[in-house]
Amino acid sequence: MSMISQYFDDFIHQISLIPIRSEVIMEEVPPPSKLAPHAYAITAEIPSRPFDDSGDGSFDDSDDYLATGRFVLLADPQYKEAWQGEFRAVTFVRAPIDDEMAADPLLNDVGWSWLKDSLESSEAHAIAMSGTVTRVASKSFGQLAPQPDQSEIEIRGSWTPTDGSSLVNHAKAWLALLEMVAGIVPLPDGVTALTRRR
What we know:
Layout: H1 3-15, E1 25-29, E2 38-47, E3 65-80, E4 85-97, H2 99-102, H3 107-121, E5 126-138, E6 150-161, H4 168-182
Antiparallel strand pairs: 1-2, 2-3, 3-4, 4-6, 5-6
Helix pairs in contact: 3-4
């Protein structure tokens, strides 16, 4: 087994050990199959109403959410010139925002700074970063006209981890970004939330 494959397998094991806040629902999903010899994907969402009214502790299945996203890790034992390395992290985060934030001309720059801050705070060292920050405004018409106008921010990013032994930090950075756009206050150091997975 190559060192790249070992790092990738270690990453998958460490993913299952990440302490996840009770508000976050995370699950493994089928990864893209043709981008690299090794690929792993997870999705996560933070519902706006995490618990239903029955009091049994289950999550509300409504479409309302504070944030949703996807994380993909690609690995190729052969150095990829386009990646400038053997690994590539590909992420997506989306969250509804209020009209005032949507109208802020600095929103796109702020969204990108959130991603960079999340990487830095998680000690996820990266090179060859690229991505987009998009604000989406929706207005309903016809029979849907009674629905309120909606605005969302979408942050898409990809980068190359520089250290194969700390790949899990990049997934942690993505989760930190998800919580940031959802407006969840970070947990103090040393405090671990209950873990719930769907």
